[in-house]
Structures
1.
Amino acid sequence: MGISQQSRGTRLASFELTDFPQPNGREEEWRFTPIADLADLFAGDLKAEVVTQVQGPTGVGVSVETVGLDHPRIGAVPAPTDRLAAAAWAASESATLVTIGGTDTTQPTVVRVIGSQSERPTPSAAQLTIDAKPNSRGLVLLEHTGLARLNQSVEINLGDGADLTVVTVCDWTTGSVHAASHRVRLNKDAHLRHVVVMMGGSLVRITPHIELAGEGASLDALGINVTDSGQHHEAQLFVDHAARNCRSRATYKGALLAAGAHSVWIGDVLIRAAAEGTDTYEENRNLVLAKGAHADSVPNLEIETGQIEGAGHASATGRFDEEQLFYLESRGIPKELARSMVVHAFFAELIARIGQADIAAALTAAVDAKLDQGRAEPA
């Protein structure tokens, strides 16, 4: 049986778990995913074992509360489009609601999701909603640490004119499995900088679904994965241009350090018939540092109107440049340091685009630490 092809504009969207059958791995959205390793996260009776802590700046219009799923600001974004996302919603009994109402972009609101201390963590679910009020400005850092088997639902809603940066860092302990649905709505003239960083865990699958629903909305989607032996890091991005005169840029980069490392990037962009004046571009770059590492990269672009400013995509996967390594070694730089310098340069421009110096410095240090741990041989 072949893989079914379906427009992203017509894919089923529902909050009801029963609307989604159990996937078999042959569906387009699952064909690169080791779904057997996610089997216990597809159920709707997951527990709330992980701990969510929020540390935010005070006096700048940030509030945090725990609310029921019937709260009017919960579920005000696109509905889930796969069974994992629907299961996370169905299993959650409450949501952590972070409201951004001020204009401080210097101090981040830090959301820490902490796994259990158990060696065999219980499959769990968590619901987080970030609501940016009209004309607000904010910065949210979402950190994941510890050991967990987590199915997570993250909602991000930007009011008219809001400007928000959300940085997600997955630095789980080895053995962790993390599936996260990021469902986002941008209203009129809103701007979102959405950053995903995957370094830890054994299996991490992030699926950002970002709808540009208001005229003049703008998106910068950035992604980094540093993937070692035995790790599967996957990002499936869907950018839905549903309104006029919107702009989106997506740039994801990955480094695969050793044999057995696997990364997946799917980039779907839909320009609907009503989205005249769209300007969009997406790219994925992968650097393979060892034989036996593998990167899957699939950009997709659907255009339903010819009245656009521009649309394009690019994808490239290449092995480590031995000429660069030789050049640095010939000038007295040790091999391992030279390799780290090349990879550091590969990520540097992307990290700088996050726009917040402290977070950029912390990510640079984390990437360098991960590279230092790698035992990759040249490809």
2.
Amino acid sequence: MDVLDRDFADPACSDEDLVAQLCGGDTNTALTRLEQRYGKRIYHFVDGMVRDCHLAQDVTQEVFEKVLRKHDHYRPGTNFRAWLFEIARNQALTALRTRQRLPRPVSSLPHTEELDLLEALPAAGLNRDLEEAEFMTAFRAAVDDLPEHYRTVFELCVQQGQPYQDAGRTLGLPTGTVAIRIMRARKRLYGALQGHLGRLRRPPACFQ
């Protein structure tokens, strides 16, 4: 274990200390330490709920993004671990609800329902295809317009699916810095694409 790992594992640095660092603006160090301390446990907890390793990985990253955005909601003196796992539980439930709302494949529908659906597909499907094609054109342009330091981490973590820690190692950045840049990239993209998002039946995964 190197010096950095010993520092992250140092029990003298309590959860309360790390939350105080977040509140004080030292977000990179504090968030990276929290991920080192709880990342694997959160992942296994979420995976036990969603039963999908890739989805569990995404939800785990979302949990720490939520901690970054909502750390001021934590009440000092209460159980931080319980607060963190409650966030994880809520994010996992949201992911499950989103997955349940996905349209069923045609092959899973009763025969009569399948025929009705197929009859309706040409008109409805054409409009959706046009909307989605228009959105993807705008999305690619918006990603290209991101500042380079936001675009790089967005492409690695969101589009290519790299875990934040792996992207951080690739770019030589703390995991907390990667999470902050992803959050800011999403915020910029949401602002640029808001008009398109309102017309889509289901927002892309990177905005959920």
3.
Amino acid sequence: MQKTYYPKADEIQRDWVVVDANDQTLGRLVTQISSVLLGKHKPSFTPGVEMGDYVIVVNAAHIKVTGNKLDDKMYYHHTGYTGGIKSTNLRDLLAKHPERVIEKAVWGMLPHNRMGHSLMRKLRVYPGADHPHAAQNPKSIEEVLP
């Protein structure tokens, strides 16, 4: 009889991966990030277990989008008051908070539960080229993904 392998917490090894978002398309970049966060690139991937790596995204202000998404893509949030829906387009959000664009896109590709919230805590996004995680010796995403 074959037994199903279920990884233990101390068997999971988490690395740090750095991603350069300079001139990358938003959707294609975010699919790679979410795959690394979930741990789907590892041979011992198990759904429902946090096996992914920490991800550092640099140059978030320099991502590209195709088509008319800069003006047509809208982000909404509600203040909680009656008639309190607020909206902003992608161009304005990239100008003010470029890291939020990647965070919102990654959140849309992760499970919307406790596991997804803990995976989001493993994501670090920076608008410029420098980051304070050099001590973790991050790998490039090309080394991690095939």
